[in-house]
Design a protein that fits this description.
10 helices; about 15% strand; 8-stranded mixed beta sheet
Length: about 300
């Protein structure tokens, strides 16, 4: 096993009540081939029944890779992510690259080597990569066309920012240049803490790259392709956008005024999307996002991750 001081990259995996899926994620990371030493850190966010931590120990123990497994007692995905990155930086003090993959994802061969190579070559502070989705149940055309399943596409290039942490690399200097908590715990149960984090990084001047070769495969559970779930998710996206605008605007009236504009623009975008797709479900997204902003401004926030 490599000495902790020689580790150059650490892959962080927060997990919550999905041991079988976590096992698949871990197997894909363990199988990565690189010309640099790397480690794995797992944080189980279910302190009452940490089956994920047990699963991680069982798989990582015989793997021959440096690793650490923790249980985070404070429920909430931001608590788990913050714990993972903090423990990774402390346990592997010379690791320059901190990465994250979710427990419903699988790293494709060459993922780790490609994303680190891009960070080194471009001296990037943050690097994101594509997420290819596999649906557990047959998905309709309307679901496949839904904007929530869209992502950044195209060749590797510098971009303004990424929005999700499910396939990302963050250089250590980014963490050292931001105030704690790194992921804002106000987003624990709402979601969107990663989007707020990367928004903060952009505003702080950190450079973000897109690595087309760093592919992650995500498994989408059956309950996440229903019309009910997707419509609620669209509303929540709007709520997240409003809260982020409220945090960064510096003025309370600005995001409220933006809501009025958003409703008008959302209606127009929904009409155009329906004209393009001829399906109501994907076309409902822009208008529901605008509705979510308005609901959030009234103090009502969904909490899908509390439980």
């Amino acid at each position: 096993m490599q000495d902790a001081s020689s580790i150059q990259a650490v892959v962080c995996i927060p997990t919550f009540r999905r041991p079988a899926w976590l096992a698949r994620t871990l197997a894909s990371v363990i199988a990565q081939e690189t010309d640099f030493p790397f480690a794995i850190v797992v944080v189980d966010n279910d302190a009452a029944n940490p089956v994920g931590a047990v699963c991680a120990e069982d798989l990582l123990g015989p793997a021959g890779l440096p690793y650490a497994v923790f249980t985070e007692g404070k429920q909430g995905n931001c608590h788990a992510i913050n714990r993972a990155f903090a423990e990774a930086m402390q346990a592997f003090p010379r690791a320059e690259f901190l990465l994250m993959i979710d427990d419903d994802e699988m790293a494709m061969p060459g993922w780790l080597a490609a994303i680190v190579k891009t960070a080194r070559r471009e001296n990037a502070d943050i690097v994101g990569g594509p997420v290819d989705r596999e649906f557990e149940v047959p998905a309709t055309t309307a679901v496949m066309q839904h904007p929530l399943f869209g992502s950044i596409e195209g060749e590797s290039r510098e971009i303004d920012q990424i929005h999700g942490s499910g396939n990302c690399l963050i250089r250590r200097r980014v963490f050292e240049g931001l105030q704690s908590p790194l992921f804002d715990v106000r987003f624990n149960f709402l979601g969107g803490g990663d989007m707020e984090f990367f928004t903060r990084c952009r505003k702080a001047g950190f450079r973000t790259w897109w690595c087309a070769e760093a592919m992650i495969h995500e498994f989408v559970a059956g309950e996440r392709v229903t019309a009910r779930f997707l419509m609620k998710r669209s509303i929540r996206t709007g709520s997240i956008n409003y809260v982020i605008d409220r945090i960064h605007s510096g003025s309370a009236p600005k995001p409220v005024a933006k809501n009025a504009v958003s409703l008008w623009l959302g209606l127009g975008r929904s009409v155009r999307l329906f004209t393009k797709t001829r399906r109501l479900l994907p076309a409902s997204h822009p208008l529901l996002v605008s509705l979510g902003r308005t609901i959030a401004s009234l103090g009502f926030l969904p909490k899908p991750y509390k439980g």
